[in-house]
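@channel sequence for tomorrow's demo:
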Amino acid sequence: MNAGAAAHAEPAPTEVAAFAGVSKSFGKRSVLRGVDLDVVPGEITVVLGGSGSGKSTMLRMLLGLEPYDAGSVRIFGREVRELGREEYRELMMQIGMLFQFGALFDSMTVGENVGFALQYVQHLEDDVIRELCRENLLMVGLKNVEDLYPAELSGGMRKRVALARAIAHKPKFLCVDEPTTGLDPIMSDTINELILQMRDRLGATVLCITHDLTAAFKIADRIAYLFQGKILFYGTPEEIRASEDPIVRQFISGSAHGPIAGA
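structure tokens (generated this afternoon):
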């Protein structure tokens, strides 16, 4: 690169993902009303909010699965809606996705599920895929399950298989949607521990969408609280615990009484 080109090169983004003034409506129902949020590299950012607050909508927009009406959604410094097909594909290979209910393919074995992207996107050799599947399943605490089908697994095992699939291609950015839904407290804590381990082992940035306060306080470096379509609070777990905002305090306490009841 010559000196002139270097002088005009865009600076590296200081965030893995960023929302700026993002709005989204479904018909007459406004879900997001100017959302601003930066996902800092190397950290776990948790987006908290009540059911139907728009948390999962944010995630779908970030992954290019849902258009946004206004504002900017950027990933690795690129505007999502401006991505071409090939560029989108390349960026998605840097991202791992853990869906709320696992989203495993019922007709495939555990090994085939974990190795799906390795086979059909990266086109690796079968023996390499088998070894990577084994390694990633061991990382989430599963052994000798490659030939089982999802229907033969417990809910916690399915979630761990889904996590193994999400990390199989060593993503730089891991997106997690309601990771503890439907799990008992012990398995929920196991999943939270695994998310922390994946952050540390892979050096990945994590964006987690949840309404589970226990999970949020366990794994978050930073917490964003989404309320009435905007980020009402953004800070550390310690800072949100100390917040004097009555809406934030009611949500954190889980009380039925307070300003949220009439929102």
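heads up for whoever presents: Confidence is low (pLDDT under 50) at residues 1-12.
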